[in-house]
Amino acid sequence: MQPVQRKIIHSFILLLGLAWIWVSADRSGASTAGQIPAPQQGFLAPDFELKTPTGETVQLSDLRGQAVLVNLWATWCPPCRAEMPAIEKVYNEYKDEGFVVLAVNMTYQDTPANIAPFTDEYGLTFPILLDETGGTARAYQLNSLPSSYFIDRNGIIREVVIGGPMAEALLRTRVEAILK
After folding, report:
1. CA distance 18 to 10
2. Residue 57 and residue 135 in contact, taking contact as beta carbons nearer than 8 Å
3. Is residue 20 in some structural domain?
4. What is the pLDDT of residues 52-93, one digit of tens each?
5. What are phi and psi of 157, to 5 degrees?
6. Are 148 and 164 in contact (CB under 8 A)?
7. What secondary structure letter does DSSP report for 65?
8. Residues 6+ apart with CB under 8 A from 5
9. Total structural domains in the chain?
10. CB within 8 Å of 32: residues ≥ 6 apart
11. What is the pTM of this model?
């Protein structure tokens, strides 16, 4: 085959490939519309069902219609300790507007006996949930404590904050955004 013929064949194959891409492209930009659960901004928050220390069961998907902060933490984590007063303050300010905090303790890597004294020390009034198996940590691809997920009323993660402590002003801004 001559070089000119080879170039013509390669060009034809390239044009066919480009035509296929153009024909099969999703121009709406909404092939999944964020409805595939993933622990990142713009995606549906991975669902979980966990128990509180008193045995009550809480499922994230049952809270659709409310703005939710999922905060992954442990009692031994200094930044977690530092941000809890700000989370409690912002929770009390916005709970009547439909804001919920789910503080998910990484019980599988914490000392369960330390949880009640911790919540008493900080006067926490929002639900404390126990991740005893690490399932929620895996679903949220936990790499660092604390990790916080601001979830809008439709169950979509609007902001992810890895590490901490979060300042009260940052919390307030993010909460107001997910309450809209």
Report:
1. 12
2. no
3. no
4. 999 999 999 999 999 999 999 999 999 999 999 999 999 999
5. -75, 120
6. yes
7. T
8. none
9. 1
10. none
11. 0.80
